[in-house]
Task: structure prediction
Amino acid sequence: MSAYKNLSIRQKQIVWAWLFLAIPVLFYVVIRFYPTGTAFVISFQEWNLLGTRTWTGLENYEKLWNDPVFWKVFRNTFAYLLLGTPVSLVISFVIAYHLDKTRFLHGFLRMLYFLPFMTSAVAMAWVWRWFYQPVPIGLFNNLLASIGIPQIEFLNSTTNALPSILAPAIWAGLGFQVIIFMAGLRAIPGSYYEAAKIDGVGWWTVLTRITLPLLKPTIVFIVVFSSIGFLRIFDHVFNMTTNNPGGPLNSTKPLVLMIYETAFSSFNMGYAAAQTVVLFLILLVVSLLQLWILKGDNT
Amino acid sequence: MSKYMKRMALSGLTALATLFGSSAMAVEIEYWQYFFDARVDAMEQLIEKFEAANPDITVKMTHFPYADYRTKVAAAIPAGEGPDVVQLFYGWLNDYIEADLIQPLPKDQFDPAAIDAEFFPMVQAMKRDGAYYALPTAVRSLALFYNTRLFDEAGIENPPETLEELVETAKKLTKVDGAGNITQVGITTGMTAQDHHWWREVLVRQFGGEPYKEDYKTVNYTDDAGLAALNFYVDLEKEHKVTQSGFMDEPQAAFKGNRAGMHIDGSFRIGSLNKVRGLKWGVAELPAGPDGARSNYSSYWVNGITSKAEGEKYDAAVKFLKYLTSDEAMQLWLDVVGELPAKPSVGMVEANANDPTFGPFIRGLAYANTTKFANESAQRQAMVDMVARIDIEGQDPAESLAAAAAEEQKVLDDYYK
Result:
């Protein structure tokens, strides 16, 4: 106790700060870092959850490298990312840009756009899954059939299934991105626009020279955030293809779903952990790359 | 409340008994199963009867949602926490034996020769090196469900007896709209449901093949029989146009919605079909093959004693398991859960074998096969992809069959290496 008394006020503050920080630090160490570390260790082992773990070295990674399903899944994961991120970015910006200028029913419209974000992904995926069914129960195909157009195989197709699943996923995330964009737009000082007006500049120049450059921090945030979201896509895919998860023929399977199946239906924990490590590395690289590209020249 | 009082009184009594140095000791054993209303209900009744007959033993049942069950059991037993008697899917047995999580049943109480004779033959899959490791109370098999109202409408009197009749019957039951889109299927298909069992254990055998060799360690359906079976299956959609895979999302949904004339499914479906209002259905044995051969697929859940049970708990667990595999327990399980008795002595009695609903399933047990899966979901996936390649990508059936065999063999090799 006397040791504490001898401390200066500054040192005492540090002691108290650490005391309060101890709880979240402990939480992170036990709940986050310890399992993460264990996952790395398991990725070098073989374990079926029941028996003992045995060391296999790099065998899991070797297997992953030679697994055609993994490469298919790898491509799918990036298809979700490379289609999903730009499309959702453009749509949400267009909506936010125009919504920002709309006064009529502004709050109501904003609520409508935000609503899908608050809806349970599982419920939404199932509703869309039924929308996509063939005649006689699918909404879209019934519409097509009623005007004499041949049915479209939305989910039972190796080419259409991925975009069909991506569409509701983009729609679900839109509300959040619109709100962030609107906050970003509101944060741009009005004086820039006034100066542009005085100079008599057209809307295109205003958009490309004032609005977009000043929105860069917002765009960085949304790109990083939605990229991570699309790289980790799971619930939409899983719920829209529960009978044949990630199917047909693995054409919609993202990495997270492969990890889930390897771990909890094949009980191959080591192999699943190796996949998790790969996912972790992809997320890390993609996030760092985006931060570097989008923030690098920001002065 | 009365149960609580009874337990209180019981524990009071045993406390007294212990005080006075009597040898009767109260033992509590734990029993785990996954949560399914009727199963939990049936087990409660069985436990009550067992406790009445064995007042010195109490059984505590714990249940979990199905989705978590396997993980929870796997995590608990090695930690010494879990059950003394545990319910497992038959396909998990290998993993549990290998990890030393369950112990063989004592031969003096569960005589292997007697079990071989008394139980339906597919139960022998639970035997390793001459000893049984677990036993089922109830088993399941497949049968052909048919919609009696749609049968009447199409003027069909009896369910099909052979595969040939199946196709003809299905043709009469199929409806299409003006544009040629199917609006009602003659028979549901979908490898994602029960059809992979139907194809593997029934169709392949009926066309003269044997799906696996060496105790299910080697794939053996790439011959002409396998190809004939696959062609029969995919031709239902391609050639005869009496079905559409993925019709109404799930086969059982189409059948429940009165949009499917016939549907192959397991006995576990009976309960949920009974709940559908406005659905009138009947059950028939699976159609016989070209030369009259019949086959069926059976799966089951078994009860085993974990390695955690020792000493008097072990003795109590043995007694409990003995009761769970008795004729009385099997009849109760059939009445409450609707799952089929695992012994012919209960199943083949007049009332059960001729029951209009259970009868076709029970008769199917006599010639049923049980696939020893190494990884059921991965092996199912091979079948699903086999049909999808033909259906979506137009691949030649023989090529697709060979690819599926290679894929499944890899799963088996990985497991048995």
About this structure: Chain B touches chain A through 37 residues (CB under 8 Å). The longest helix of chain B spans residues 397-416.
